[in-house]
C-alpha cells in the first residue's frame, strides 16, 4: 500500500462514467485512492497477480464479472481483501446475494456518507488485520527463535518453578545424565546439588520465591543422576513459562567445533540417498513459510508420488529401486532448478516448494508429469519408466499448520491414486471456503433450531464415590436431537457453537436443565457439568446462576462445575473473579483433564478448586504401563496432601477399577461403572 492514508482501490463496474463518479465522491471526502478498474475475469486475474490491491468495490447487479467470481479468485490466490458490494437501492435480494457470495459489506453511491463510513471502516479493519498478522508473525518468530535456541543450545538450561524443574533442554538432561524431561519433572533442583552446597542452594531458592534474584553468578558443586560431581557456574534470570513466573538457570557448556556442527547438520537434516531435505527439517522450513504466508500469498507445494510404487519396487528389487529414486530426484532437480526447495518425504514421495502462483504451479505440475511419463530412468543394471500423481496447493492465510497443509496434499494424492493415478490435482481454497461455509451454516441452523425448539437433552453417567459415601453423583452429558430424533454428540456441535458464539446459550440451557433435574429427583443428587471458558469469562454468569438456583430452590452445593486445566491457564486473568463468585454460591469447582500441563498443581494456588479429574489420556494404557501408574499415583498422593479429592474417568474394565482402589482415588466414572442414560438411577 502506498501509505496508510491512500487506498489501492479496484473497481469492478461496467460503466467508466459511474466509476469516475464514485471516485469523485471519495475524493470529495478526502479519501485518497489509487484506482484500477476491470470488467472481465482475465483482467481481474492479471491485476490480482501483479498489483497491490487493498480493497474491491464491485457492482452487484452486473453480470460480466459477478461478485461471487471476484471473491472466489481472491480466495483462490490467498489474498485478504475487503470486498464491498455496490447496491443501487439497498435491494434486499441484492444484499442477500452479496452476503451469500462472501462480501464483507455493502453500500450505495446514492448514500455517499454511508459509503464513506463503510470504506473507512473496512480499511481500518484491514490495517488492524495486517498489523495483527505482522505482530503475530513477529511473536511466533521470536518464540520459535527462543524455543530453538533453548532446545539446541549447547548450554544447559532449566526453568525452575517452586524449586521444581518446569522445563529442561537436551543439554541440561545430558549434563546431569537423565534420559528425558519426564524424569526430571518430578525431581527437585536441590537433587542436582551436592550435599555440601544444599543449604546455600535452599537460601537461593527461597530468595527467588520472594522475587529476589542473585546479583552475581552462582557457584555450586553439582551432582549427576549417576552420582558424579562437578563444579557448576549458574546464571539466574527471570522468565515466564505458560504464563507462570519462574527462574531461568543457565550452566555454560564447552563450544562445539563449527565444522563438526556443519557435518552434523547434513547428517541430521538431509536424505542420504537423494541429498534432498528430510521430512523433519522440511517441516521446520514449512512452518516458517506458513507464518510468512499470513501477510502475503506464499510458495506453492507440489507433492509428487510415484504410481504403483510397491509393484515397481518388487519388479526392480530394493537396491535398483533406490537407484531409480536417486535418478528421479536428480531429474526433478534438473527441471526445477536451484530456486526450488526439495524434500524426500518418504520412499517414493517428494515435495517441491516453488516460488510461483497456483496457476503456474498447476501448469508446471502438468508439464513435469508429462515429461516423467516419456522419460526412461536408470535403475542400476536395468532401466524403467513410470508415471506420477501430483497434488498442488499454495500457502495462504488459510494455511493453519504444517500438518493441515500436508494432510491437504496427501488427501488429494490419495484421491488421484483411487482414480488410477497419473493425474494432477489442485486444492482450490475458494471452493473449499464455500463448502466449509455451507457446512458451518448447516450446523448453525441445527444449533439455533435446537435452542429454539428445546432439542438439547441431558444424559447422566454415574460418578461413584468409593470412599464409602452413599450420596449419588452423575455427570451431565449434553446431546442434540436432530430433526429425525437421532442423537448428535457434543464433539460434533460444540466446536461450531464456540466458533459462532452459541456456547454461552448451550451452557445455560444445560445448567437450567440440570438444576431442574436436581429439583425433580427422588433422591439427594449432585451433578457434574462441563462449563466453557466463555461462560466462566462472562461477568453476568454468576448472577444468572444465582437466580436459577434461587428460583428452583436448589443449593449450589449440588452443582460441580468442570473446566479444563488448559483453559484455566490460558484465561486465568478473566476467569479468576468469575470462578470466585461461582464458588461463593457454594458450587464445587472441578479441574478437568488435570495433569496435562507442565506444572499442573500451580493452578491450585490461583483458583478455589475442590476436585481434580485426572486427564483421561492416562487411562488408555494404565493397566499395562507401570510408568503411567506411577504418574497417576503421584498425582493422587500430591492432590490428597493438598486436601483435594480426585476423580478418574474412563474406567472400562475390572483391572483398571482394581488399580483405582489401590491408589485411593475418591471418585470413579466410566462405562464399567455405568453407561450414560436418559434418567438418573441410584447406583448400588
From TrEMBL:
<feature type="domain" description="GGDEF">
    <location>
        <begin position="297"/>
        <end position="429"/>
    </location>
</feature>
<protein>
    <submittedName>
        <fullName>GGDEF-domain containing protein</fullName>
    </submittedName>
</protein>
<keyword id="KW-0175">Coiled coil</keyword>
<feature type="coiled-coil region">
    <location>
        <begin position="125"/>
        <end position="152"/>
    </location>
</feature>
<dbReference type="InterPro" id="IPR000160">
    <property type="entry name" value="GGDEF_dom"/>
</dbReference>
<dbReference type="InterPro" id="IPR043128">
    <property type="entry name" value="Rev_trsase/Diguanyl_cyclase"/>
</dbReference>
<dbReference type="Pfam" id="PF00990">
    <property type="entry name" value="GGDEF"/>
</dbReference>
<feature type="domain" description="EAL">
    <location>
        <begin position="440"/>
        <end position="684"/>
    </location>
</feature>
<dbReference type="InterPro" id="IPR011006">
    <property type="entry name" value="CheY-like_superfamily"/>
</dbReference>
<dbReference type="InterPro" id="IPR029787">
    <property type="entry name" value="Nucleotide_cyclase"/>
</dbReference>
<dbReference type="GO" id="GO:0071111">
    <property type="term" value="F:cyclic-guanylate-specific phosphodiesterase activity"/>
</dbReference>
<dbReference type="InterPro" id="IPR050706">
    <property type="entry name" value="Cyclic-di-GMP_PDE-like"/>
</dbReference>
<dbReference type="Pfam" id="PF00563">
    <property type="entry name" value="EAL"/>
</dbReference>
<dbReference type="InterPro" id="IPR035965">
    <property type="entry name" value="PAS-like_dom_sf"/>
</dbReference>
<dbReference type="InterPro" id="IPR035919">
    <property type="entry name" value="EAL_sf"/>
</dbReference>
<dbReference type="InterPro" id="IPR001633">
    <property type="entry name" value="EAL_dom"/>
</dbReference>
Amino acid at each position: 500500500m502506498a501509505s496508510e492514508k491512500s487506498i489501492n482501490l479496484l473497481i469492478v463496474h461496467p460503466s467508466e462514467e459511474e466509476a469516475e463518479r464514485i471516485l469523485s465522491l471519495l475524493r470529495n471526502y478526502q479519501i485518497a485512492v489509487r484506482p484500477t478498474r476491470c470488467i472481465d475475469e482475465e483482467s481481474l486475474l492479471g491485476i490480482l497477480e501483479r498489483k497491490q490491491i487493498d480493497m474491491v468495490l464491485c457492482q452487484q447487479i452486473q453480470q460480466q464479472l459477478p461478485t461471487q467470481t471476484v471473491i472466489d479468485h481472491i480466495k483462490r490466490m490467498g489474498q485478504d481483501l475487503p470486498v464491498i458490494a455496490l447496491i443501487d437501492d439497498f435491494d434486499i435480494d441484492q444484499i442477500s446475494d452479496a452476503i451469500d457470495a462472501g462480501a464483507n459489506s455493502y453500500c450505495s453511491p446514492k448514500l455517499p456518507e454511508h459509503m464513506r463510513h463503510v470504506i473507512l471502516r473496512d480499511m481500518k479493519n484491514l490495517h488492524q488485520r495486517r498489523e495483527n498478522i505482522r505482530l503475530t508473525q513477529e511473536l511466533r518468530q521470536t518464540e520459535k527463535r527462543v524455543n530453538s535456541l533453548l532446545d539446541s543450545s549447547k548450554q544447559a538450561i532449566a526453568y525452575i518453578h517452586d524449586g521444581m524443574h518446569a522445563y529442561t533442554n537436551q543439554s541440561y538432561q545430558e549434563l546431569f545424565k537423565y534420559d528425558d524431561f519426564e524424569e526430571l519433572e518430578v525431581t527437585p533442583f536441590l537433587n542436582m546439588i551436592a550435599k555440601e552446597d544444599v543449604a546455600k542452594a535452599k537460601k537461593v531458592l527461597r530468595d527467588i520465591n520472594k522475587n529476589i534474584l542473585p546479583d552475581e553468578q552462582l557457584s555450586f558443586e553439582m551432582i549427576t543422576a549417576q552420582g558424579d560431581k562437578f563444579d557448576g557456574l549458574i546464571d539466574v534470570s527471570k522468565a515466564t513459562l505458560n504464563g507462570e513466573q519462574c527462574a531461568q538457570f543457565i550452566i555454560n557448556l564447552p563450544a562445539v567445533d563449527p565444522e563438526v556442527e556443519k557435518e552434523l547438520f547434513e547428517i541430521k537434516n538431509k536424505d542420504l540417498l537423494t541429498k534432498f531435505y528430510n521430512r523433519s527439517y522440511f517441516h521446520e522450513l514449512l512452518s516458517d513459510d506458513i507464518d510468512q504466508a499470513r501477510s502475503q500469498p506464499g510458495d506453492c507445494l507440489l507433492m509428487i508420488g510415484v504410481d504403483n510404487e510397491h509393484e515397481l519396487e518388487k519388479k526392480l528389487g530394493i537396491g535398483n529401486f533406490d537407484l531409480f529414486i536417486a535418478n528421479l530426484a536428480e531429474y526433478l532437480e534438473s527441471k526445477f532448478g536451484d530456486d526450488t526447495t526439495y524434500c524426500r518425504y518418504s520412499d517414493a514421495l517428494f515435495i517441491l516448494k516453488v516460488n510461483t502462483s497456483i496457476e503456474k504451479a498447476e501448469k508446471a505440475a502438468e508439464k513435469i508429469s508429462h515429461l516423467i511419463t516419456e522419460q526412461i530412468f536408470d535403475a542400476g543394471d536395468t532401466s524403467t519408466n513410470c508415471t506420477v500423481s501430483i497434488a498442488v496447493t499454495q500457502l495462504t492465510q488459510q494455511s493453519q499448520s504444517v500438518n493441515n497443509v500436508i494432510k491437504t496434499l496427501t488427501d488429494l494424492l490419495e484421491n488421484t491414486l483411487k482414480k488410477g493415478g497419473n493425474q494432477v490435482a489442485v486444492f482450490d481454497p475458494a471452493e473449499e471456503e464455500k463448502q466449509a461455509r455451507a457446512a458451518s451454516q448447516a450446523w448453525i441452523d441445527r444449533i439455533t433450531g435446537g435452542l429454539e425448539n428445546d432439542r438439547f437433552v441431558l444424559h447422566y453417567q454415574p460418578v461413584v464415590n468409593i470412599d464409602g459415601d452413599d450420596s449419588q453423583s452423575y455427570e451431565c452429558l449434553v446431546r442434540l436431537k436432530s430433526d429425525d430424533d437421532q442423537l448428535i454428540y457434543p464433539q460434533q456441535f460444540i466446536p461450531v457453537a464456540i466458533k459462532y458464539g452459541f456456547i454461552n446459550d448451550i451452557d445455560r440451557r444445560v445448567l437450567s436443565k440440570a438444576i431442574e433435574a436436581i429439583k425433580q429427583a427422588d433422591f439427594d443428587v449432585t451433578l457434574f457439568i462441563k462449563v466453557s471458558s466463555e461462560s466462566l469469562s462472562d461477568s453476568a454468569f454468576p448472577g444468572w446462576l444465582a437466580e436459577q438456583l434461587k428460583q428452583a430452590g436448589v443449593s449450589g452445593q449440588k452443582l460441580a462445575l468442570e473446566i479444563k486445566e488448559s483453559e484455566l491457564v490460558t484465561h486465568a486473568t478473566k476467569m479468576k473473579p468469575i470462578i470466585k463468585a461461582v464458588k461463593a454460591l457454594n458450587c464445587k469447582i472441578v479441574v478437568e483433564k488435570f495433569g496435562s500441563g507442565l506444572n499442573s498443581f500451580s493452578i491450585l494456588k490461583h483458583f478455589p478448586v475442590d476436585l481434580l479429574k485426572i486427564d483421561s489420556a492416562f487411562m488408555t494404557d494404565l493397566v499395562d504401563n507401570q510408568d503411567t501408574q506411577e504418574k497417576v499415583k503421584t498425582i493422587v498422593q500430591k492432590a490428597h496432601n493438598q486436601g483435594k479429592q480426585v476423580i478418574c474417568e474412563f474406567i472400562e474394565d475390572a483391572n483398571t477399577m482394581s488399580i483405582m482402589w489401590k491408589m485411593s482415588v475418591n471418585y470413579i466414572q466410566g462405562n464399567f461403572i455405568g453407561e450414560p442414560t436418559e434418567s438418573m438411577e441410584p447406583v448400588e
